Amino acid sequence: MSVSNTVRSYLEGQAIPYELIAHKHTQSSMESAGAAHVKSDHLAKAVIVKEGEEYMMVVVPCDYHVHLGKLHRLLDREVGLATENELIQLFPDCERGAIPPLGTAYKLITLVDRTLLDQPEVYFESGDHEHLIKVSGEQFAHLLGDAEPVDISRHH
């Protein structure tokens, strides 16, 4: 598959040049970073949370976890992680577990960890387990649109 149709259309619509990095099949973003020889704090991953029927994307470096307590305080409400079945419905053109961290492309409210906004280049899943997309940090910030910068994650 390489790049999901949603991501390809979004990148083309935003006129963002990108590099596609092929790597061996992996099961996680941390494995992808290793396979593609990318620094883990340069690889953005998407974590999908929900409250009722409302979904939100939280974008963090792949070697970080979303701190749900901090997220609850920031939002002033409780949220939980989306289930695998919900993810399949939200991202039908992506392989399970290979969600691109572009909430705007999928019409999701997005929060982004500030540390990603300081990177000179950012890599992220293309929608499958064998390719990463590389863009400049500035282009990544543009792709995130009006995503809110936050401090709600912690290093593994």
TrEMBL record:
Span of domain YbaK/aminoacyl-tRNA synthetase-associated: 23-141
Record bears the keyword Ligase: yes
Keywords tagged on the record: Aminoacyl-tRNA synthetase, Ligase
Lineage top rank: taxon: Bacteria
TM ranges: none
One Pfam family matching this protein: tRNA_edit
One GO MF term: aminoacyl-tRNA deacylase activity
Leader peptide range in chain numbering: none
UniProt-recorded name of the protein: Prolyl-tRNA synthetase
